[in-house]
Amino acid sequence: MSKLNYLILKPRVNKKNKNKNLKLKKNPQKKAVCLRVFTISPKKPNSANRKVIKVNLLEYSTTLVSKIPGETSQLQQHSTVLIKGARIRDLIGVSHTTVRGKYDLLGIVGRKTSRSKYGVKKPL
């Protein structure tokens, strides 16, 4: 327990929370244009080629790397996508993901489970 005189001299100061997602400028999602589609291999225990895209944010003209969820996509250069911040643990340097079912990134056809992650409406 701190002494009273010490607290009078140096009062307690709350730590400021750092914004980890500086590229999106405190926005939940941002519209972006695709520059390049390529694959990255993940860190040590996992092994597969993950599809990622290099995108250019429209308003700020900053580039970042974003993961494409799901198996297939018809993305190519100059496609418009929606980017959201998400931690991708096994990909180095990737801290964003794209939202499926919005703009040029279509949802996965025939998806039954986890539909909200892959942009699929509820079947009738």
Q: Kindly state the mean pLDDT as a whole number?
A: 91
Radius of gyration using CA atoms only: 20 Å
Low-confidence stretches: none
* Main beta-sheet annotation: 5 strands, mixed, barrel
Which class do the helix and strand fractions yield? mainly beta
Count up the helices: 1
Our estimate of the beta-strand percent is 25-35%
Name the helix and strand elements from N-terminus to C-terminus, one letter apiece.
Answer: HEEEEE
> Termini separation (Å)?
63 Å
What would CATH call the architecture of one domain? Beta Barrel
Major beta sheet, strand line-up: 1-2-3-5-4
Instruction: Please tally the β strands and state the result.
Output: 5
CATH C-level label of one domain: Mainly Beta
Superfamily (CATH H level) name of one domain? Nucleic acid-binding proteins
CATH topology (fold) name of one domain? OB fold (Dihydrolipoamide Acetyltransferase, E2P)
Helix content: under 10%
Shape, principal axes of CA atoms: elongated
Structural overview:
- The chain has 124 residues and is mainly β.
- The chain has a domain at 29-113: OB fold (Dihydrolipoamide Acetyltransferase, E2P) (Beta Barrel), CATH 2.40.50.
- It is built from one helix and five strands, in the order αβββββ.
- The chain has a five-stranded mixed β-barrel.
- A hairpin with a 5-residue loop joins strand 2 (50-57) and strand 3.
- The mean pLDDT is 91.
